[in-house]
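Throughout our pipeline, every protein is held as a single compact record rather than as scattered files. Nothing more is needed to write down the fold, since each code stands for a local backbone conformation. The record that follows is passed on verbatim for readers who wish to inspect the format.
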Amino acid sequence: MTNESGFKVARHAVCFLLMNDDGLVLALSRGKDLDAWGMPGGKVEANESLDMALVRETYEETGYVVANPLSVYTAFVPGEINFICTTFIGQVVAAAEGAPRSWPYEGECEWVKPKVLVDGPFGDYNRSLFQKMNIDWRDQ
């Protein structure tokens, strides 16, 4: 995406870091590709705050309702489309029936070891996030 001056601009994206008591991270496959995992999240829509986008995307992709989202990490993610991605943690206050589950078009939800996310399509971003959050992914 470019602006009126022809400069490439970055879109905002959000993702949700949710870990269970076993140290597994809730992840979403990229479509039906079970070799490409990422945290729930997505693009921020026009006129939507980062918090609102996080709540919407998390519900769409997992069935979980998040309250009190707290931003814990933001970084530039270069690519075909550049993103400024912000990761949040928060409290799950409600869940749709069958959660965690995704709408059919989103992908599959699973609890995975952090290493899976470091080896995935957003590996550099996730590695930096895990370092900041003191989440070990190396010996898995």
In short: The mean pLDDT is 88.
